[in-house]
Amino acid sequence: MEAVPREPAFEEESEAYTLFQRGLAFLRQQHPAQAAMLLARALRLEPGKNSIREALGRAEYAAGRFAEAAEHFAVIVAEAPDNDYAHYALGRSLLMLGRGGEAQAHLRLACALRPASALYREALARRG
Questions:
Q1: What residue ranges do the domains of the chain occupy?
Q2: 77-98 burial string, b = 16+ CB within 10 Å, else e?
Q3: By CB neighbour count within 10 A (0-12 exposed, 13-18 middle, 19+ buried), where does 69 fall?
Q4: What is the CATH number of domain 66-128?
C-alpha cells in the first residue's frame, strides 16, 4: 500500500522515536515483520501516536496480518475520521478479510475526502 508520509509529533531523542525510525527503515526495506516488532514497541511507549499506529498498520498489512492491520486503522479512523489514508488502508484490509461491504464504505470515504487520489479511485473501482 502506498503511504502518505506524516511527521511524528514526539521528541526525536526519545526511545519511541528511535524505534519508529528503525521500524520505518525496515518497512522501506520490505521487512514488515521486523518493522512490526519495532513499531509495536514504539506504540507501547507512545500509545496516542497515530503516526506510529499507521506505520504499524502498514507493516501488519505487508506481513499479511490483515486483521491486525484493520484494527490499527480502525483506531485511527475513530480518532481522526477525516484521515483519508486511514479509511483507504482500513478498506483495503477489510477487503483482504472478505468484508467487502464494510470495505466499500471506507474506500468511498477515502475518495470523498481526497477526490484527486487515483490510488483511492482505483481501489474503489476494483471493489465496485
A1: 10-64, 66-128
A2: beeeeebbbbbbbbbbbbbbee
A3: buried
A4: 1.25.40.10
End-to-end CA distance of the chain: give it in Å, rounded: 19
What is the maximum span of the chain, computed from C-alpha positions, in angstroms?
45
pLDDT in tens, 60-70: 999 999 999 99
Going along the chain, which residue ranges are E strands? Answer: none
pLDDT bucket at 119, cuts 50 / 70 / 90: very high
Take residue 125 and report the three cell numbers written for it. Answer: 473501482
Q: What percent of the chain has pLDDT over 90?
A: 86
Residue found by looking up cell 470523498 in the block: 112
Higher pLDDT, 5 or 117: 117
Separation between Cα atoms, residue 91 and residue 94, nearest integer Å: 5
